């Protein structure tokens, strides 16, 4: 049976797409530390604004977290090749990050937005970022995070301030801390597999 050249070309394109998705997921896994960092930053900002009563809690904490992210990321990505998928996902997260910062800063300084609406806005943005990333990478675990954030966004306006805050804290723990640690474990396993293959090749 003769295989048409078009079939070869189609298979090559599909293989390229799959390789790009796999590389994009590996690149995303290497950012697990940033999920944990930002999860911790959210907790610090919440605690500071709640018990310290400072309007500068969110802006200050977000700026510090952003600076730490830039410094650590510049060191980790210095020797990594840039990919189209990685660049696209980075653009999504940077855009969402800037949006969150501007929203958090303006709300923190004005103090006019209610807790429930504030949480809903943050949750829906984080849900969007995770959803876009998960769809591009075909990653069900990250889409589950998006669903959790969206659930918090939808439920928050119907709850009391304390209930909404507890829901937000739970979402941060699951979608930032737990998922970030999960990503870091995947990255460690990937490195061990690469090291094992490299050792076998030299044996």
Automatic annotation (TrEMBL):
<feature type="transmembrane region" description="Helical">
    <location>
        <begin position="115"/>
        <end position="132"/>
    </location>
</feature>
<feature type="transmembrane region" description="Helical">
    <location>
        <begin position="165"/>
        <end position="185"/>
    </location>
</feature>
<keyword id="KW-1133">Transmembrane helix</keyword>
<feature type="transmembrane region" description="Helical">
    <location>
        <begin position="139"/>
        <end position="159"/>
    </location>
</feature>
<feature type="transmembrane region" description="Helical">
    <location>
        <begin position="30"/>
        <end position="49"/>
    </location>
</feature>
<keyword id="KW-0812">Transmembrane</keyword>
<keyword id="KW-0472">Membrane</keyword>
<protein>
    <recommendedName>
        <fullName>HdeD family acid-resistance protein</fullName>
    </recommendedName>
</protein>
<feature type="transmembrane region" description="Helical">
    <location>
        <begin position="85"/>
        <end position="103"/>
    </location>
</feature>
<feature type="transmembrane region" description="Helical">
    <location>
        <begin position="55"/>
        <end position="73"/>
    </location>
</feature>
């Amino acid at each position: 049976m003769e295989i048409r050249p078009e079939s070869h070309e189609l298979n090559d394109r599909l293989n390229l797409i799959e390789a790009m998705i796999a590389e994009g997921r590996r690149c995303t896994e290497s950012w697990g530390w940033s999920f944990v960092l930002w999860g911790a930053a959210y907790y610090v900002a919440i605690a500071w604004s709640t018990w310290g009563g400072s309007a500068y809690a969110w802006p200050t904490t977000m700026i510090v977290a952003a600076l730490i992210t830039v410094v650590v990321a510049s060191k980790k990505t210095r020797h990594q090749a840039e990919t189209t998928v990685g660049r696209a996902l980075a653009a999504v997260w940077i855009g969402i990050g800037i949006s969150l910062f501007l929203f958090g800063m303006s709300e923190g300084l004005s103090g006019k937005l209610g807790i429930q609406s504030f949480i809903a806005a943050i949750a829906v943005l984080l849900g969007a970022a995770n959803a876009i990333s998960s769809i591009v990478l075909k990653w069900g675990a990250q889409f589950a995070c998006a669903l959790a954030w969206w659930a918090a966004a939808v439920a928050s306006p119907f709850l009391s301030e304390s209930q909404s805050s507890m829901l937000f804290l739970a979402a941060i723990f699951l979608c930032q801390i737990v998922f970030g640690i999960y990503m870091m474990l995947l990255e460690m396993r990937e490195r061990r597999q690469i090291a094992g293959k490299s050792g076998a090749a030299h044996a």
